[in-house]
Specification:
One of its GO terms (cellular component) is cytoplasm. By secondary structure, the protein is of the alpha+beta class. It is 36% helix and 17% strand. The protein has two domains: 121 residues, Phosphorylase Kinase, domain 1 (2-Layer Sandwich); 156 residues, Aminoglycoside 3'-phosphotransferase, Chain: A, domain 2, CATH 3.90.1200.
């Protein structure tokens, strides 16, 4: 099953980017970078023929970041002429194909990259991809509420929502939620205590609330855009010297409701500890909306009663 997903993803990417090299090699996600190095060197040589005659001493590998769904590695290559090239090797987390549609992600990347978002796709392999290296720092949750950065995030998100990705424009939010629900409601744990805790969850109540929310949102006639769906601080990078903001990682991207994408971003102010008291207040939300709706004239008053944006307390 996994191999089918991998090769379908490669075929999708190649059908949209015929000049992107691909490799059938896999990298063991669980190894430390030093032990991964020989395999990564082999991968780089397989994908990029200009490096095929370089020995291992020309390559260095370091971990950049790692989460549930990805492990990012910075690979530096010293070419024969002394030029240093930095690339990012992104390894998919184990079993992430159960929650992430990798084909959908690979389909969108060329169009988002052409619009100036994220790193450039350089190559694909069996359990990951190679991208250009972004020289920037990852934001922390408190950074997102800094007014200047919040304004820039709003401007960039507006541009992101204007990118046209070929294919069905049907919102995928509820399809994805029902898919997640289906998997989450049919789990079994080997650990007795974990299983006992799991059995306290009322999935009947959860599905009832999901259906009710779906029916309520169906009355809103909400605008549908290509949404990021995971705009947390870890997917925002800033080059402080150039004052350039990058939106990265589109693995949850899909056509969805504009208000959901913005509301989900506001939830991410809560940080990894999920302290929802940190979510933006009404003034901070209005600041974001003004820069989203009219980046050129954000100081003008925005009538949010008719702009279909989520506002706390309404």
């Amino acid at each position: 099953m996994g191999a089918v997903n991998i090769w379908n993803a490669i075929e999708v990417a190649e059908s949209h980017t015929s000049d992107i090299p691909s490799s059938s090699l896999t990298i063991d996600h669980s190894l430390p970078p030093s032990d991964m190095k020989p395999r990564i060197v082999e991968l780089c040589k397989d994908l990029f023929k200009k490096w095929s005659n370089l020995d291992e001493s020309h390559f260095s590998v370091e971990r950049v970041s790692g989460g549930i769904t990805n492990l990012l590695l910075k690979v530096s290559v010293v070419e024969k002429n002394g030029n240093i090239v930095n690339i990012t090797v992104r390894l998919y987390g184990p079993n992430t194909e159960y929650v992430i549609n990798r084909e959908r992600e690979l389909q969108a990347i060329p169009y988002l990259s052409a619009a100036g978002f994220g790193a450039k796709l350089l190559g694909i392999f069996a359990n990951g991809m190679v991208q250009s290296f972004i020289d920037a720092r990852t934001l922390a949750p408190p950074d997102m509420r800094e007014p200047k950065l919040a304004a820039e995030i709003a401007k960039q998100l507006r541009k992101f929502h204007q990118v046209d990705i070929p294919g069905s424009k049907e919102p995928q939010l509820w399809n994805d939620i029902f898919k997640f629900y289906g998997k989450a409601s049919n789990l079994n744990f080997d650990d007795f205590e974990e299983q006992k805790k799991y059995e306290t969850i009322s999935f009947k109540e959860i599905i009832s609330e999901i259906i009710e929310l779906k029916e309520l949102t169906g009355c809103l006639d909400a605008p549908v855009v290509y949404a990021h769906n995971d705009l947390l601080s870890g997917n925002l990078m800033l080059n402080d010297d150039e004052e350039r903001l990058y939106i990265i990682d589109f693995e949850y991207g899909s056509y969805s409701y504009r208000g959901f994408d913005i509301g989900n971003h506001f939830n991410e102010y809560a940080g990894y500890d999920c302290d929802y008291s940190l979510c933006p207040n009404k003034d901070e939300q209005h600041h974001f909306f003004r820069h989203y709706l009219d980046p050129e004239r954000p100081e003008e008053e925005v009538n949010c009663d008719g702009c279909q944006m989520p506002i706390a307390g309404r």
